[in-house]
Recover the amino acids of this structure.
């Protein structure tokens, strides 16, 4: 291609400015200005004889089109398709990598105790009950009564979780959008999600709240057999239902028949109940019946919302995923795990309490020596491998520290 022809083509391109071809827009700068520079600016494609030949052809068609040649215009429109000129336009189409889904810090420490274990063998958390009942009167010269103290334990073992991602060296070279730069971060987020789902699956299942842990025998579900007054069994989340749940938890007794003091609670809800839960907890005032419950008419009290200082709302998006039956309506109250005996414990291996991220060291060495970057890949296949390892375990503990409702109203 002569320089005069190239100059004429460039002049025509500059006059036209932009050209619409199908769903894509090609501009003078995009076609000629960067001559195939990748979007990340990391590499520059060398000008080749094939590239210049195609560029010359496009410039010649442009010039003839500007001079009124209809056949050239049709040929130019056909030539501008990405399918025919994938090499020429393959790296100048407007592309961008969408951000990953936002993640969040784990929420389970608000309702479960964090534990540490030394190895993979089963560990026990021992309990000691009794000996705290009120004292008996002792008559003169009479013997003191002997009271019983009973022990028990909860048991669990931690397990190893992990996965790896392998990509080829060619894929990393072609990654002009830096899409693979956050692969280690993605593996770390996977470990965080594993923690949250693991905790949710301890107290919830596909059919609703864990029926062994939340039961009439444990007196930690809301129904007519738990408290003296008639209430709605498994009520939907309302201010009245919250009062019933606090009653259920407040009426729990220890092995000596004494009360259990609960200073603060966590209201755990699915995303579908986030607005309801926050409206209840953050309301400035509550209209209550004179007797303490929800009331209507003139028999009402206007009180400051005391729950703002007692109840912490946590939204767990894993609840409707784990519980496919009533995951959008079930809600839970957990006593503060840092005070007294917790409802559950999540344990981690000592020294390995956070997700551990690894990249495989290359089993290769350059001729003449020198360090090899892991992103160069291994010797056999040029493969680059990332891995995450996380060790976690846990168990449900004291049912007296939790209350649940599946929200069905029955």
């Amino acid at each position: 291609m002569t320089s005069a022809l190239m100059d004429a083509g460039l002049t025509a391109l500059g006059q036209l400015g932009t050209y619409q071809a199908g769903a894509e827009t090609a501009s003078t700068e995009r076609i000629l200005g960067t001559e195939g520079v990748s979007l990340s600016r990391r590499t520059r494609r060398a000008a080749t004889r094939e590239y210049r030949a195609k560029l010359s052809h496009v410039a010649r068609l442009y010039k003839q089109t500007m001079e009124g040649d209809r056949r050239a215009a049709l040929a130019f429109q056909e030539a501008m398709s990405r399918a025919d000129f994938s090499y020429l336009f393959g790296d100048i189409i407007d592309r961008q990598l969408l951000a990953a889904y936002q993640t969040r810090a784990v929420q389970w420490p608000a309702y479960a105790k964090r534990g540490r274990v030394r190895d993979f063998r089963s560990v026990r958390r021992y309990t000691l009950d009794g000996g705290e009942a009120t004292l008996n009167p002792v008559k003169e010269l009479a013997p003191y009564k002997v009271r019983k103290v009973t022990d028990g334990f909860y048991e669990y073992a931690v397990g190893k979780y992990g996965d790896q991602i392998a990509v080829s060296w060619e894929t990393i070279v072609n990654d002009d959008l830096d899409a693979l730069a956050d692969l280690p971060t993605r593996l770390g987020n996977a470990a965080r999600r594993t923690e949250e789902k693991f905790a949710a699956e301890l107290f919830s299942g596909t059919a609703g709240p864990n029926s062994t842990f939340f039961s009439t025998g444990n007196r930690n579900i809301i129904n007519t057999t738990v408290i003296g007054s008639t209430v709605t069994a498994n009520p939907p989340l309302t201010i009245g239902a919250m009062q019933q749940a606090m009653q259920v938890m407040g009426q729990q007794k220890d092995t000596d028949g004494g009360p259990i003091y609960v200073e603060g609670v966590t209201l755990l809800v699915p995303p579908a109940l986030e607005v309801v839960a926050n409206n209840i907890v953050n309301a400035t005032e509550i209209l209550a019946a004179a007797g303490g419950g929800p009331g209507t008419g003139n028999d009402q009290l206007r009180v400051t919302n005391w729950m703002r200082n007692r109840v912490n709302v946590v939204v767990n998006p894993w609840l409707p995923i784990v519980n496919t039956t009533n995951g959008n309506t079930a809600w839970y109250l957990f006593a503060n795990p840092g005070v007294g005996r917790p409802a559950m414990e999540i344990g981690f291996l000592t020294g390995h309490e956070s997700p551990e991220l690894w990249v495989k060291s290359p089993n290769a060495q350059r001729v003449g020596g020198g360090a090899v970057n892991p992103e160069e890949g291994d010797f056999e296949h040029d493969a680059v491998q990332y891995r995450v390892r996380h060790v976690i375990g846990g168990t449900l503990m004291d049912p007296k520290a939790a209350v649940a409702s599946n929200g069905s109203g029955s």
